[in-house]
Write a structure and sequence with these properties.
- By secondary structure, the protein is of the alpha+beta class.
- The chain has seven helices and ten strands.
- The chain has helices at residues 2-6, 43-52, 73-84, 118-121, 123-130, 149-154, 157-162; strands at residues 12-13, 18-20, 23-25, 28-32, 143-148, 168-172, 178-188, 192-197, 206-210, 220-225.
- Helix 2 packs across helix 3.
- The relative contact order is 0.19.
């Protein structure tokens, strides 16, 4: 239903400013790739995977949920994109270039025999791969957009209008470090978005979490749309 409604929504970008209804909203579009990029990505399949595995770990993948491992959030989202969304691996097996390589063949970073990349499991490196950090990155997604916490508290509507099930949201602190990754799995009352996540504590592994409740979780959010 939201997808149909969105077709009627007109977003005009002037100097990286969204105009939603009659209210201007300053959200910074970090980049936009050609509309054909990742066109075969199954956005709904990624969201369905996230819902299925939101509260438990898929035994086909390592679980990085302990504090010492930094949490399972990005590993979980990467799985959703790859298994549920059929998004192919990027780069070369055995290499671990954050902007070029994204894959999982096993639990350890290269040069392990069955390696996985840092961009698969780490929030900041995931952002470096699919989006940008300080304007530099792999830009493997279709588009990435930055929203400050103040902007989201003031007006959540633009990010609601932008994102669909299967799109990704990342949280960034005041130093610019990306510390958490979530995936949109639905739509909530009051034009809210529902997200699924893993983390360092399995007690907060869940789906249908209000994204509005995370508006001030960091200093800003970065939305990562794998395809248009």
């Amino acid at each position: 239903m939201k997808k149909k409604l969105k077709s009627a929504f007109v977003a005009t970008v002037v100097c990286a400013t969204f105009l939603s209804s009659s209210q201007a909203f300053a959200a910074t579009i970090l980049f936009t790739n050609p509309d054909t990029i990742n066109s075969s990505f199954n956005r709904s399949g990624a969201a369905d995977y996230a819902e299925k595995w939101a509260t438990t770990a898929n035994p086909n993948f390592a679980n990085y949920g302990s504090n010492s491992d930094g949490g399972d959030c990005t590993n979980f989202v990467s799985q959703a994109l790859y298994v549920g969304g059929s998004l192919p691996f990027n780069g070369t097996k055995g290499k671990n270039r954050f902007t070029e390589d994204w894959y999982y063949y096993g639990p350890h970073v290269p040069p392990a025999t069955n390696p996985r990349t840092s961009s698969w499991t780490a929030a900041h490196q995931f952002r470096q791969h699919f989006a940008v950090v300080n304007d530099v990155g792999g830009k493997k997604a279709w588009r990435a957009t930055r929203y400050t916490s103040q902007e989201l508290v003031s007006n959540f509507q633009p990010i609601y209008d932008e994102l669909f099930r299967g799109d990704v949201v990342q949280h960034v602190d005041s130093a610019g470090h990306t510390f958490h990754t979530q995936i949109v799995n639905g739509y909530g009352p009051g034009n809210d978005l529902k997200v699924a996540q893993h983390s360092t504590n399995s007690n907060v592994w869940n789906k249908d979490i209000s994204l509005k409740s995370y508006a001030t979780y960091g200093n800003w959010m970065v939305s990562v749309k794998i395809k248009k």
